[in-house]
Amino acid sequence: TLHESVKLNHKLPSVIDNSSSHSAESSTTSSRKPKRHRRSARRRQGRGKPRSAPSSSPESKEDEGVVPVMIPAPEGAATNIGQERDDGNVEYKWRLLKVHVDRLEHLTTQMHYRLNEGLGECFYHIGVEDNGNPKGLPHHELQETFQTVKRMANNLGAEVHIIRCQRGIEGNVAELLVRQSSEDDFVDIRICVCGNNSSGKSTLIGVLTREKLDDGKGSARMNIFQHPHEIERGQTSAISQQILGFDNKGEITNYSLFRKGVWPEIIKASSKVITFIDLAGDEKYLKTTTFGLTGLKPDYVMLVISGDKGIGTMTADHLGTAMGLNIPIFVCISKTDLPDFDPSPILSELGELLSKGNKTAVTVDADSDVLLRAKTFVNEEVVPIFHISSVTGKGLKSLKSFLNLVPKHRSWAKALKEPSEFQIDQIFDVHEFGVVVQGIVSHGRVLIGDELLLGPSDSGEFRNVSILSIHVKHRQVKQAIAGQVASFCLKDEPLSSVRKGMCLVHRDLAPIASYSFEALVRLEHHPNECKTNFQPVLHIGTIRQTAAVIFIETGVIRSGETSIVRFQWRHRPEYIRIDEHLIFREGSTKGIGKITAVDLEPRSNMGLEHQEDPKNGRTRKNSVRYSM
Known about the structure:
With 628 residues, the protein is of the alpha+beta class. It folds into four domains: 35-180, no CATH class; 187-405, Rossmann fold (3-Layer(aba) Sandwich); 413-509, Elongation Factor Tu (Ef-tu), domain 3, CATH 2.40.30.10; 516-621, Beta Barrel (Elongation Factor Tu (Ef-tu), domain 3), CATH 2.40.30. It is 20% helix and 29% strand.
């Protein structure tokens, strides 16, 4: 029976798991050395050593698993792409001919480094010199160089896809995408989809993930909505997630499956998975949207702007929040099929808003723009703009190519090496299974059977809990690692003892609940000025609670100003870390900051040396200051 199965295997029904994952790298990389000296340094990096190179030389038969692929005809002329960088996930190779075993092993280690830098994927430019000069190669030499790159990838369990071929100075050049192909080690990217109400966010997600175009009346969004009132009103009110999978050739796996939309099957067929986090655009759901941007730790924000209504209040607010949190942004202008569509006013206003964050808007028109912007827009402070239509399909091909090529932005390699920590954002009471918590593994790894500390409680305490089972992306797994959104079934834990904003942490962290903390805050907007005793609602990761301003270094803060601010929680202590971002809102007031110190003693002249416990009326002293 199911009940007996639970007792034996601790299985958890996947229907309660609406999570997204990221396979984090467990390595860090040091400064890259010149190519001729990299071999020994790179062997000490990464997730173990690459598989041994084949013993045969290139003059012999093709390596097992490497199937010859012809280079396509060139399209257009190549230009200089700039000096090769020692770091990053882009490698230049002019030619690789008659490569023997020792050389192939070195090249494979080099590729392993580039894959680590790109968190599972990298780009190779063949026929290109180290200075970026597209010298080019004759067709047969380009073909042999490509086959050598395939052999390197095959040794690492990765696959190679030709993105494009162009004319060089003395021959042709080619750009290759190398991507790891392990089922349990796919590239996972989280994208928050923001924008004003009725801008077409849910419709666009529906079209991208289901392949079927919209009928102009919102048919594509029906599979995205979760609640009856959302279907009735045509508006998103709760956070929902959908995934889009790509295989190693850049083909979308959602479209080829017999059972479309089934997460485990999409993941199994994919080497890269995009998780769209659909956020509400209505102002009354602003707190939920803010939580999505702070608590779900997205790699990117896809801002959708309606082609007929332009940039609304919420669009500007979401854009400002994303820039304040340093989340890279790209823009989709929707409904471009309307007869009176004019992008000029939108582009003008968007340019003004982006200039406040020192960013520049760039419209993506051609395939070459897609390739360039996908790889460089984060570092160059550029915001790519796509003109799309969910009804006619205009611009969707370029957008899909961009999503296939865009790299992972967040790296979890350092966090993976630290003691485990998990932030709770959802709680379920599942019949016959008990309490299930969902959230993000922010540090380390959590295994079935682990005993962690759950807290803090309203009195600031942590207690032992045991992990009964783990689900990631609708699949039962043995462990969840840093960067993954996961669901944990807690053994014999009452529902009343768990709340959103709590954490599961390793006992080695010796967690302390904070009653007050300090942050460097920039006040984005206030009708007058912010003073002490102001009590906004703070968003820090999965935490949402009112806090009182008990000290401002500059006395007051006005719109556009920055100052050190001390806050004190109003209802209960929380577990927070230094360098975490915070957002606060109250009416039209909005501020963004970063935590600089935790558990400072409140100033005596504020009369807040002790805080009354809201449950039993007893007073308690603040914890000592600490940093992590």
